[in-house]
Structures are given as C-alpha cells and as structure tokens.
C-alpha cells in the first residue's frame, strides 16, 4: 500500500471531477491510501464520494477570492492552487510521505509541490491546455494572458508524468506546448461501473414529470455556453418539421446538468436556454434539471432512449460512456473526444454541429426502434472492450508501478553515491 494525494481546484460536479474521483477509486481498489486536497468543496454540490466518507477531503485556500471585481479569474485560480501546493509542501508531504501526487487542471502548482523533500512523483492529468480554453480578447487580454500561457507550458514540463484523456487532446497538447518534447501518455477515462451496478434506477416519473410512453432524448452537460446546449433545443425544434404529428407527440427532451448557484455563467446560461425554449415554442417538450443527484442521473440514463451530446471539440466526454454502458445510442458532434468513443452508424451518430444534422439523426431513431436497440447494444460492447473501469484501473496501476520503480532506482543511486563517499 502506498499513499496517494490528489490536488484539485474545485471538487464540484463536472467531467474533470468525475475523472479524478474515478482515478482515486481505481487506486483505492488496488489497496492504496488516497486523500483529496482542494480549494473548494461544497457538500451540497459535489459527487457522493467526497461527502460520504469514501475519501477524506481537506479544503485549503478557499478564503482567496475567485475573482477581483469579476475579472482576473485565471490569476485568482492560480493563486489559490499555489497556496494549496505550498501548504502541502510545508505541512502535508513531509508528514504523509506520499509516493504519488496526482494533480490536474492547473499546472502552476507543480514546482511548488516539488519544493517538498522526498521521493515522490508528480503526475499531471491534462484535460486540455488552459491557454486554449480562454476566450479571445483585445490587446489588454493578450498582455494579461501572455505570462499565464508561458507559465502553463513551463510548469507542465515540470511534471514527472503527463497524462491526457484522448488522442485528440494529445495532438492539441503537442501543438500548444511545442517546447515540451516528452510525449504525454493517453489514459482514457472510464466510469465507476460498481456504482452503476449497485444503484437501482428509479422510474422516470419519480425523477421528472414525464410519461413512460415518451421517446426521451437526454442531454447531460454543465450549464455552460461552450457546451453548446442550444444545439439540442434547436435540433428538437427542427425535428418537428421532419416527423409526423403522432411521432412528435411522443418526443421529449430532458436537459440535465451541473448547476453551481455561485457560478454567474451557469445562472445566465440557464436563463438563456429557458428563453430559447420559449422562442422556439417547445416549452411542453423540454424538462430542465439542475445538478441531478447520482441516482437521478442513473435513472435518466436508464430510462432515456438516446443521448444528445452537443459540445464541439470536447476533450473527451464521460457522458457518452455512461450512455453506452446503459446500451443507449449516442448522437454527438463529429469532433474531439467523441470521435474516439462513438463509432458512426455503429454505436450512434457523429453529426455536423447544426440542428438539421442532429434532427436527422434523432428522426432515424424515432422511426426505427430496432436501429435504436442495435446501436445501443453495440455501444455497450464497445464500452466493455475498450473503456471498462477494469482497463482504466490496470492502466493507472501500471503507471504507479513504473513511477515507484523510478523512485526505487533513484534511491539505489543515491545510496551508492553516499556509500562511495
């Protein structure tokens, strides 16, 4: 058994949070001791494993503001993580003596973690280069971002091992960080299948006021503009023009996703989506859910007919895997991570990011129930073959074994050097 520390900015509800928790579960299943350190943890807005005692969670630096007058969010996020890293280096690492420190999202913490003495290794999981996530701006924005972008590349290179979530992200990483010569390892995320196996889905009406006779399309994504959720609504409106009235009467879209009440964008975008539903005259065809509980999410996946996944250039995308586990076809944009999980015309449809393309795919499933079942079954088989939690666990355990071997070799060299003196 070894000690493993996870450092993550905000243990809320999202794909990055699900990934680090699943990685922690994978290590725990192998008998290792795992603990989380974070800048923010709200027990009312988090995954169950961070509040039910599965992992100890320590909050550090939450007193540092998230922004200054609504600006400088990146600088504040970096400051919060640096503070947490310094705290770990001074007070935690010397006492806990971890073998591995697993961090993600913000690489600036890495050099500060390495201020601590000890034979530990730092693994950085790059979901996507942060420099590419920021919106374009004017001259002042470019001046503001320039040092942050340089620091991101410089500090990412300080990691002992860098992991990425897909071949797509690996290509983006190498294009964004051309001074880093080491090639990152691809570690496909998975889902905690043990949780899914032991969770009994509720009936659809116990979760949302939607009849079981409906053909339910499901969208699960955070309420953020980059997730392009309006595409699902526009596709639904376009679908009305393709199918006849009797089929249209059966259609319903459930839009569920992470909603943080202290996140201004979440609040603004939720209102934008509800306004769009009114403008498209599909109020009776859409049900919104904010931050569904785990059992509710499982119930939605179990009871839906198909998943609508709308982000373009998504780094990977966990939700399509969850849908595939439940044998549901996935309709996704033909870019980014979904091109590695969804096989077009085999496990679902990869579409252009426009309402017509998505509506055409949706209509095929409605008009051909056998196709819906066949695609779903193929998706489950693909999940078991390539994206199972067992495969994810074994890959992470292999990484840990290699890092421990490097530590052992370093200790042997140090011992020989001391002996020779």
N-end to C-end Cα span: 33 Å
What's the number of helices?
Answer: 16
Shape: globular
Tally of strands: 13
Helicity range of the residues?
40-55%
Backbone CA Rg? 23 Å
Q: Provide the β-strand percentage band.
A: 15-25%
The largest pleated sheet is described as:
7 strands, parallel
Order of helices and strands: EHEEHEHEHEHEHHEHHEHEHEHEHEHHH
Uncertain regions: pLDDT < 50 for 5+ in a row? none
Content-based structural category: alpha/beta
Mean pLDDT: 92
- Strand arrangement, major sheet: 3-2-1-4-5-6-7
Please specify the SSE layout and strand pairing:
Elements: E1 3-10, H1 15-29, E2 33-40, E3 57-59, H2 73-96, E4 100-104, H3 109-113, E5 121-126, H4 139-156, E6 161-164, H5 167-176, E7 185-186, H6 193-198, H7 204-207, E8 215-220, H8 230-239, H9 245-250, E9 251-257, H10 264-280, E10 286-290, H11 294-303, E11 306-309, H12 319-325, E12 330-333, H13 338-341, E13 348-351, H14 355-367, H15 369-386, H16 389-420
Parallel strand pairs: 1-2, 1-4, 2-3, 4-5, 5-6, 6-7, 8-9, 8-11, 9-10, 11-12, 12-13
Helix pairs in contact: 1-16, 8-10, 8-14, 12-15, 14-15
């Amino acid at each position: 058994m070894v000690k493993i520390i996870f450092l993550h900015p905000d243990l809320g509800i999202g794909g990055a949070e699900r990934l680090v928790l699943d990685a922690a579960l994978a290590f725990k299943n192998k008998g290792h001791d795992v603990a989380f350190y974070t800048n923010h943890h709200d027990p009312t807005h988090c995954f169950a494993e961070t509040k039910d005692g599965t992992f100890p969670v320590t909050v550090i630096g939450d007193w540092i503001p998230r922004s200054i007058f609504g600006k400088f969010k990146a600088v504040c996020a970096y400051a919060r993580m640096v503070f947490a890293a310094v705290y770990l280096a001074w007070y935690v690492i010397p006492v806990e003596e971890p073998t591995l420190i697993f961090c993600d999202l913000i690489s600036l913490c890495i050099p500060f973690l390495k201020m601590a003495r000890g034979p530990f290794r730092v693994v950085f999981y790059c979901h996507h280069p942060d420099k590419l996530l920021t919106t374009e701006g004017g001259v002042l924005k470019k001046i503001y971002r320039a040092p942050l972008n340089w620091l991101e590349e410089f500090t990412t290179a300080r990691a002992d091992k860098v992991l990425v979530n897909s071949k797509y992200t690996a290509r983006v990483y190498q294009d964004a960080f051309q001074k880093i010569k080491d090639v990152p390892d691809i570690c496909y995320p998975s889902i905690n299948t043990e949780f899914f196996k032991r969770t009994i889905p509720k009936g659809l009406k116990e979760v949302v006021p939607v009849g079981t006779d409906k053909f339910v399309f499901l969208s699960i994504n955070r309420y953020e503009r980059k997730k392009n959720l309006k595409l699902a609504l526009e596709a639904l409106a376009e679908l009305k023009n393709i199918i006849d009235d009797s089929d249209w009467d059966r259609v319903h879209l459930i839009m569920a996703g992470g909603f943080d009440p202290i996140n201004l964008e979440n609040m603004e975008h939720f209102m934008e989506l509800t306004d769009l539903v009114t403008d498209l005259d599909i109020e009776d065809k859409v049900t919104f859910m904010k931050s569904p509980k785990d059992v509710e999410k499982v119930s939605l996946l179990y009871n839906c007919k198909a998943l609508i996944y709308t982000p373009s250039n998504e780094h990977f995308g966990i939700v399509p895997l969850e849908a595939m586990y439940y044998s549901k076809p996935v309709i996704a944009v033909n870019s980014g991570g979904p091109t590695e999980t969804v096989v077009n015309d085999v496990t679902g449809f990869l579409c252009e990011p426009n309402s017509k393309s998505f509506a055409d795919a949706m209509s095929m499933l409605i008009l051909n129930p056998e196709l819906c079942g066949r695609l779903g079954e193929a998706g489950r088989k693909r999940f078991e073959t390539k994206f199972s939690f067992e495969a994810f666990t074994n890959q992470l355990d292999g990484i840990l074994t290699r890092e421990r071997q490097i530590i052992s070799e370093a200790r042997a060299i140090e011992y020989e050097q001391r002996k020779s003196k």
